[in-house]
Amino acid sequence: MSSDTHTDPSTDSSTDLYIGVDVGGTKVLAGEVDPDGGVRRTARRATPGRRVEVALVEQALTEAVAEVAAGRRVAGVGIAAAGFVDAVGERVVFAPHLPWRGEEVRARLQSRWDVPVVLDNDANCAARAEATLGAARDEPDFLLVTMGTGIGGGVVLGGRVHRGRNGMAGEFGHMQVVPDGRPCECGGEGCWEQYTSGNALVRAARSRVGRVPTALTAACGGDPEALTGPMVTEAASGGDRAALEAFGTVGDWLGVGVANLVAAFDPPLVVVGGGVSAAADLLLDPARAALARSLVGSEHRDLPEVVRAHFGGDAGIVGAALLARQTRA
Amino acid sequence: MSSDTHTDPSTDSSTDLYIGVDVGGTKVLAGEVDPDGGVRRTARRATPGRRVEVALVEQALTEAVAEVAAGRRVAGVGIAAAGFVDAVGERVVFAPHLPWRGEEVRARLQSRWDVPVVLDNDANCAARAEATLGAARDEPDFLLVTMGTGIGGGVVLGGRVHRGRNGMAGEFGHMQVVPDGRPCECGGEGCWEQYTSGNALVRAARSRVGRVPTALTAACGGDPEALTGPMVTEAASGGDRAALEAFGTVGDWLGVGVANLVAAFDPPLVVVGGGVSAAADLLLDPARAALARSLVGSEHRDLPEVVRAHFGGDAGIVGAALLARQTRA
User: Fold this and answer.
1) DSSP 8-state secondary structure symbol assigned to residue B214
2) Does B138 touch chain A (CB under 8 A)?
């Protein structure tokens, strides 16, 4: 599987139908993707969960792809999976939020659909989208941090996605930031994504529901369990103090962890994507402040830019479709 | 400045005198280095400290180099500095344990000595030595963690030292592992090197002095403040339980931090160097256990090898001299 990112997709035939599918912890999102990264039509299914039969997840993928294809001939499908994908792009070896455990996902779906299928980690797909057509298209070296249900990451050096020995590089979400900290779905404790991610945002906001009448409390009808990430973002955008505090907490943790990554990689650019990044500076301002405060020698160096991803929630499907387009026979 | 690591130094004239100088938090070590990495003669001075005049540190360097040269013509000197060195190898921009702050160290020493001088971070020098002639000579991708007074780090990808935008990549020692943790010389709190390093080892051992009569207590005459790292290593090598516990604590923290690095880089090899690595498996066995326990998805991946550096305490001077040899006009 190619890891090239800076090839020019505009040389492909724009009439061919390429579909990207992002398989995340909460939803399966499929989309028809143009050569320039535009998303024409999408279909969505709920992710059945991590303790269900594998067949249920693959059925959800199949339905979403069929809905997008709508009977047309498909030139290729790219799968962006929220989990560890092996170095050759064949298997999902482990996925904290999904039931796949060492499954030969690529070959099985290719056989089932009779269409060329490629597979990569969702954050690597997003990194490819940002590198080729997005926020990092002028920067060959950058890190991507995606904040969805959990945290994903991508390492791009010299314009290429660095995948590592096992294809597992960039798993930033499971770096331990708190000894004996919050338990994580991965089996560890104190993983970074327990403190900054979509789930972490909702947790931080839930603890602030109901103390006083606020937009946050109103949004969920006073029931913390009914609160969702988009509700928190909307309340914060409207100036709700409790929601802004939740973003402050999660943004601070984002910056602390980014400081750790910058200490290791010293990149010129950090791109923040995933659903939570829709909040833009509500999230990134506290993150930038924490980065400047936490990063060793920050007064003696150029700090990396910390910017919002161009593709937002579409990055996975765009990058997966781009990979499919690049790797067609 | 070249960052090549896999050139063949044996093509250089072996009669030319190249000197490497390692400027660490506690000592300045200069050495004459053969093309094959052998160290012929060395000279040592105590590092004057981080709150003294810069001239005192540079005087210590000058004395050490002169002692090694012993009146012979010097072809080149490489300086391995325990601090941040800029991306072009001219300035030490910041050094937690040294007084240099943005000093034009390379040009000033070259002018003072009238000899070609090159400069790099000590851990990058060590990484170059291990990549070219040491424990990683067959592995183009690896991470180096050096445990001296603090922690240094080197990132080698595709046989090259990855230096980053500011030349500050690989500063693993200042990744935060404990929120509001132990204060660090860098101004931060909870930095990794506060939990695993030469200083951390001595701290862990001091807290165990005097409880019961042990080899550790005997080594320092019952005075915890008199305890040194080599005393702890010697006591542990002799089976002293308190000293072994200190290595267990520090080795565990080493493994936890390495797990964070492996989550990010997914390398096939981690090389552990610096003075503390002289303890070999007393340090590395608890580190390997903690790595296997802490690394996300460890049961689904090939774990990296964790090996002791080939050059031990000489890595900095060997790598610095190698850089001087590679970059001569």
Assistant:
1) -
2) no
Task: Mark which residues 235-294 of A lie under 8 Å from B by CB.
Answer: 256, 259-261, 263-268, 294
- The end-to-end CA distance of chain A, in Å, is 11
Q: What is the CA radius of gyration of chain A?
A: 19
Per residue in A237-276, pLDDT (tens digit) is 999 999 999 999 999 999 999 999 999 999 999 999 988 9
Which residues on chain A are in Cβ contact (under 8 Å) with B260?
175-176, 260
A55 to chain B, any CB pair closer than 8 A? The answer is no
All residues at 6 or more sequence positions from B300 whose CB lies less than 8 Å from its CB, including other chains: A84, A93, A94, A101, A102
Residue B117, token pair as written in the block = 């001088």
Coil, helix or strand at residue A240: coil
Cα–Cα distance for residue pair A323/A305, rounded to 1 Å: 26
With tokens 């020019």, the residue in question is A8
Tokens of B326: 């590679």
* Contacts for B309 with CB less than 8 Å, ≥ 6 apart: B126, B130, B134, B135, B144, B146, B271, B272, B273, B274, B277, B315
Say what the pTM is: 0.90
ipTM field: 0.89
DSSP β-bridge partners for residue A152:
A146
Q: Considering chain B, what percentage of its residues have pLDDT values greater than 70? A: 95
**Partner residue facing B302 (CB), from A157, A163, A165:** A165
Contact A289, B197 (CB under 8 A): no
DSSP of B273-308? ESGGGGGTHHHHHHHHHHHHHHSTTGGGSPPPEEEE
Sketch out chain B's domains with CATH numbers.
9-128+314-326 (3.30.420.40), 138-309 (3.30.420.40)
